[in-house]
Structures are given as structure tokens and as C-alpha cells.
Amino acid sequence: MCDPRPVPAPRLGHYGSMATRPPARSVKISKDERTGWSSDRPRSDGAPPRPPDLTVHCRVLRPADRLRYSPGSLLVIVSASVAERDRFLERLVEDRASLLSLDKVRGLLAGRVPEEEVEWRAQELLQAAVLRRLENRETVVLATDGLTAAEREPPLREASRLKRPRHLILLETSRDQVRDEDLATLNELRRRLDAGELGAEGFQTVLRLGGGSASEVKQILFRVAPRED
């Protein structure tokens, strides 16, 4: 004899499929997977943390007879000619204490330390001097030895970390003053400057001066512009 009691209909899940409940299981989430952004996760390969991205919006300035920057800025001067670079800075930078370069530090060390130590000691002292002035919110005019981004990166990182304004001037020179091994680097720097791509290094403004435009500069000021009433 059949059982007269009604048989309950099966429960249907989404789209009419028969509902099933999978067996419960625990899932352990590792520390590496607890945040959504890959940059927040610790490096599992033992490599050091990635350095902060320095990229900012970069404005390409036009030459003018008066160049004005905020007090406490880092202004990097790049040129293929050390002699023209030094003449330019000698004429326009009033605060001699703000003007720093490896040549200047090498001169201070000459005869005071063994010759084989001069180069690395000069690098060390220059970095310390740049950092000290930036921490004190004092202007730094840094005349670089070379044309590469690697040389510019350490002071830019410190200035970025301390939220100090960062600017670059490329001072052009005649072709006979450019070493053959520097020509490709210089051309790439020119291209990136004109395209506004030096924001990737951390520069907020860039300026290219060459020929008559450099001689027409009468002042480099590190003062706030006067208010126009």
C-alpha cells in the first residue's frame, strides 16, 4: 500500500536548479592577500620595498629676463659645459651658500683627505649638505656634473619627501662643447624636457635656455612675487 502522506517538492535554486548546500570549509587568508592593492603587500621575494613614485605634473616654462622660484626650492642646473654652467650661476645666484656642486666640495676636500678618497667623500658631503638645507627649508641650487637622471634622482627624492618645490634648467652650449659620448643623453634630455616628460623624475617646472635666451636672464629670484593691488 502506498503512503498517503504528500511528498514535499524539491527546493529549487537560482534558474530552477536544485538547491544544494556545499559543505562548509574554512579558508585561511595569508598576510600577502589581505589588502586589495599589490603595492600594499609585502614583497615575498625578499626584495627591498619599491621606492615612492616621484611623478608630478610638469610645466615647461618659457625663457624670461627674470626667473622666479619659491623660497626653499630645489633648482637643478644641467649643462654639457661646466664652464658655461659656472659662468651662468656666478652671474645670477646671489646667495652663494645655496649654490652646491661636486666641484665645489672637491675643492674644499683637496689636500685635506687622501686623493683616492676625495670622490666618494665629496659625494657623501654633497648629499648631506643638500639634505640639511632642504630640511631647513632653505633654497638649493644644485649644479650637476653629468646629464643622467641617475645623478638627479637622490636630491629629487629628498626634496619630494620633504615636499619642497623641484625645478630644472637645461643650459645649452655649442656643439663643440659637448663630448661625443654625451650627445645621445643630451638629445634625449632635450626631447623629454620639451615634451614635459621630466615630471616622471619629479620636476614640477623645466626650462631650456640656449644662445641668446641665457644671456637675457637678468635675475634668478627665490622670493614670493609681490602682490598686485
Account of the protein in words:
The chain has one domain: Rossmann fold (3-Layer(aba) Sandwich), CATH 3.40.50.300. The longest helix has 18 residues. The radius of gyration is 30 Å and the shape is globular. It has six helices and eight strands; from the N terminus they run βββαβααβαβαβαβ. α2 packs across α3 and α3 packs parallel to α4. The protein is 30% helix and 14% strand. With 229 residues, the protein is an alpha/beta fold. Strands 1-7-6-3-5-4 form a six-stranded parallel sheet, with helices on both faces.
Produce a short descriptive summary.
The protein has six helices and eight strands. It is of the alpha/beta class.
Name some characteristics of this structure.
two-stranded parallel ribbon; 229 residues; Rossmann fold; 8 strands; single chain; globular; alpha/beta
* Main sheet strand line-up: 1-7-6-3-5-4
Q: Please, how many helices?
A: 6
On the 0 to 100 scale, the average pLDDT is 84
Number of strands: 8
Round the Cα radius of gyration to an integer and report it. 30 Å
Q: Distance between termini?
A: 107 Å
CATH architectural label: 3-Layer(aba) Sandwich
Number of domains: 1
CATH superfamily: P-loop containing nucleotide triphosphate hydrolases
Helix content: 25-40%
